[in-house]
Each structure stands twice: as structure tokens, then as C-alpha cells.
Amino acid sequence: MSSITCSICSHENDIGARFCSSCGAELQRSIEDRTEGLDLTDKEVFDADLDLASGLKNGAALIVTAGHRAGSKFILERDFVTVGRHPESDVFLDDITVSRKHIELRLSALGYSITDSGSLNGTYLNGERIEEDPILLTNGDELQIGKFKLLFLVSKSGI
Predict the structure, then answer these.
(1) Whole-model pTM?
(2) Checking DSSP bridges between strand 80-84 and strand 91-92, what pairing results, if any?
């Protein structure tokens, strides 16, 4: 049976251990044991991923980059998309900081526009609070809805 030897006290530790069970020192792990995180703001990675997605009707998606659903992808397949805490929302964000009907996304010939639905905590687009007037989204825009941050991406083929 394999084990990891502590470089401080020479104690044999179980594979997968991060700290020595005898002296508490951090165990040296090989590079193969480490995993590398994916930077969720890397737009090129997600552009390629979206191009490969099957059933991508409009060529756009929301990627959760912060909040308890970080990494979740929501492909925008409808001309009208609701985002909020209401269970029937197209993009359901379950947190008290999100209003039941927080925002609406509408597709036009120019692309998706965002409208705040009168949310209590507001909606932020690239760090600026938006009002109830529709604003056209562009590739790479960052939305903040309550504790969630979402990245709006358009595939290379467009909407």
C-alpha cells in the first residue's frame, strides 16, 4: 500500500492526506496530484464551449461566476428570459438577495437587452446600477444580481 512520507518527521501518511497526522506539517504532493481551476472569466474558453453546445438557438448564455452556483451555465434559448428567485423563473437564483422577479432579458434584432423588474436590491451591469429602461448587452458584460455575478457571453457565430 502506498503512502506519503512526511519530510519533517518521516511519518507515513495515507495517500491523499494534505497534512502529516503526526506533526501537522503540510505534505509535499506531486504536481500530478494537484488540480488546476478554470478561470470563469476566460471568455475564449466559454466561447468555444458555447459553439459546441447542442441545441444552442440564439447563441448566448449566462455563466455564474460568483455565488453558490458558480460555474453554472444557462444557455439562453428563448426570446424572453426571466431571472429571479421565483421557482418558475427561466434562470432560478435561490438566494434572499435576489427578488422573485429580478430581471428580464429580451431578444431583438440587435441582441439581448436587460431590464430590471423593480428589484429591491437592484441590478448592476459592469458595476453600474441599471434602472428600468432596457439596456443592450454585449459579449463579456458582467451582471450582478444580489450575491450572484453572471457573465453574459455570445458565441462566435453570434445571436
Answers:
(1) 0.60
(2) parallel
